[in-house]
C-alpha cells in the first residue's frame, strides 16, 4: 500500500513539473508575478511623483509669498500648474491646500527643501532643474528682490547646489531680460498676444491664460526641461506678461 502511495506521489510530482513546463499554468503564474512586480514599480513611481508635486508646490508657495503677497501672475501660474499636473479634483484640492499652507510660513524653506531631498530620490541634475524652475517663478513679475534671492540660496544649499550654479542661472535670466528691456508698444503687445485690437477685457484675459498655459515651462515635470528651454520659456513668458499688463492698462 505504501509503495502505491509513493508511486502516486512520484507521478503527481512528474505531472506537476511537466504541466508547468508545457501548458499555460507556468506562463500564467510568471505573467502574474511580472505584472505584480511592474505594478509595484509603477505604484512606487506614482508615489514619488505625488511627493515631488507636494514639495515643489510647497517651495513655489514660499517663493511667491516671500515679498508679502502672491501677485496675479504668480496666482495664474500656480493655477495653470495645478490644472496641468493634478490627475483629478481630489489631488488638485490637496495641492492647492498645500500651497495655501506653505505660503503662510516662509521661514522653514531650508527644512522643507532638505526634506524634499530625503523623501524624493532625484539625481542632482534634476534637483538643479527644480531650483532653476523656482528661479523662474521668482522672476515671473519681472524683478528679483533680496528676499527671494535669499530663499533661493537656502534652497540651493539644501539641494547641495553651489551658489555659483545658482548665480549662473539667475544671471542667465537677467541678461535675457535686460536684452529685451526696450519699452513695448501697444501694437507689439497685440501682436504677441495674437489679439484683435477691438478685443474686450474678458477676451484679453482668456487669451492671456491660453498663451501662458501654452508657453510656460512645466514646473512639475522639471526633469524634462533643459536650461536653454527654460530660459527661452522665461523670455517668452515675460513678453506675454508685459503685453497683457500693457493692454489691460489701456482697457482700464
TrEMBL record:
Pfam families: DnaJ, TerB. Residues 188-252 form the J domain. SUPFAM superfamilies: Chaperone J-domain (SSF46565), TerB-like (SSF158682). Coiled coil: none annotated. This is Dna-J like membrane chaperone protein. It comes from Campylobacter avium LMG 24591.
Amino acid at each position: 500500500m505504501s509503495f502505491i502511495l509513493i508511486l502516486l506521489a512520484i507521478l503527481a510530482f512528474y505531472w506537476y513539473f511537466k504541466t508547468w513546463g508545457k501548458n499555460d499554468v507556468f506562463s500564467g503564474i510568471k505573467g502574474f508575478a511580472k505584472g505584480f512586480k511592474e505594478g509595484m514599480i509603477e505604484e512606487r513611481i506614482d508615489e514619488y511623483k505625488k511627493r515631488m508635486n507636494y514639495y515643489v508646490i510647497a517651495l513655489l508657495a514660499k517663493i511667491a509669498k516671500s515679498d508679502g503677497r502672491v501677485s496675479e501672475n504668480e496666482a495664474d501660474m500656480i493655477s495653470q500648474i495645478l490644472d496641468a499636473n493634478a490627475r483629478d479634483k481630489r489631488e488638485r484640492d490637496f495641492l492647492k491646500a498645500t500651497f495655501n499652507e506653505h505660503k503662510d510660513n516662509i521661514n522653514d524653506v531650508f527644512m522643507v527643501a532638505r526634506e524634499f531631498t530625503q523623501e524624493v530620490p532625484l539625481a542632482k541634475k534634476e534637483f538643479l532643474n527644480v531650483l532653476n524652475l523656482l528661479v523662474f517663478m521668482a522672476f515671473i513679475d519681472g524683478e528679483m528682490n533680496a528676499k527671494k534671492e535669499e530663499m533661493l540660496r537656502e534652497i540651493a544649499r539644501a539641494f547641495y547646489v553651489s551658489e555659483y550654479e545658482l548665480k549662473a542661472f539667475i544671471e542667465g535670466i537677467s541678461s535675457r531680460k535686460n536684452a529685451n528691456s526696450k519699452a513695448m508698444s501697444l501694437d507689439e503687445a497685440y501682436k504677441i498676444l495674437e489679439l484683435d485690437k477691438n478685443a474686450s477685457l474678458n477676451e484679453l484675459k482668456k487669451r492671456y491664460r491660453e498663451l501662458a498655459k501654452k508657453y510656460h515651462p512645466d514646473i512639475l515635470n522639471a526633469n524634462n526641461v533643459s536650461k536653454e528651454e527654460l530660459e527661452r520659456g522665461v523670455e517668452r513668458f515675460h513678453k506675454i506678461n508685459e503685453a497683457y499688463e500693457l493692454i489691460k492698462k489701456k482697457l482700464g
